[in-house]
Amino acid sequence: MVISQQKSIEEILKMLEGEKSVFVVGCNGCAEVCETGGEKACKELKKKLEEAKISVEGCANVDFMCNKLLSALKVSRYKEKMEKADSVVALTCGIGVQSIAAVVDKYVHPANNTVYLGGFQGLWPSIEKCAECGDCVLDITGGICPVTNCSKSLLNGPCGGTKNGKCEIDKELDCGWEKIYDRLKKLNKLGNFQKQIKLRDYSKMFPAK
Fold first, then answer.
1. What DSSP element (H or E) covers 106?
2. In the chain, is it the N or the C terminus that has fewer CB atoms within a 10 Å radius of its CB?
């Protein structure tokens, strides 16, 4: 079980600034239990987006968005509608955002934050991982988590030790920030490197007792 909370509509609209249409994808797994995914949450977000003059080309719900095969099969049925959209908004945890971003050729915005569970990481059938930061930055990094993909959890670009695309700490590990660069380049979003990610608020992960 992975717990998520929906971002405020103001934060979601800020992520969508400059876009006119989106396709909404929701998770019927953990997120639906948390009421941050599933059909009901998708309908509610659709209404709010349309009130903000953003067209919603369609909505799709995946039983478990952490499963890339399920995600790819489900969204393939909505290919034409998704192609009309400027981007995808994902109502799921951080794992689901990374999973859906890996199987679609659209930019994916996270509509939720994943809540810290005291070190318990949950179980999911994919290589994507989530640190449950409570303040998801996947919108800036193209759906690749810098916290879990970078050995040093750097938030604003690579260190000076990466060489030939590999991490200086583990020569078998791909540099997380090079992966982010490649994804952003593919989606024509390299301008995101001009955006500064704010420092992690660890109080959301380790609240005072």
1. none
2. C
Contacts of 112-119 with C-beta under 8 Å, sequence gap 24+, read 112/4, 112/5, 112/6, 112/7, 112/31, 112/36, 112/37, 112/136, 113/4, 113/5, 113/6, 113/7, 114/2, 114/3, 114/4, 115/3, 115/4, 115/5, 116/204, 116/205, 116/206, 117/2, 117/3
Report residue 169 CA to chain centroid gap: 26
pLDDT tens digit string along 120-166?
665 566 777 888 989 999 999 999 999 999 999 999 899 989 889 99
The pLDDT value given to residue 206: 63
Q: What does the alpha-carbon distance between residue 145 and residue 197 come to, in Å, rounded to a whole number? A: 12
pTM recorded for the entire structure? 0.91
Q: Cβ distance 83 to 48 under 8 Å?
A: no
Structure tokens at 197: 């990610």
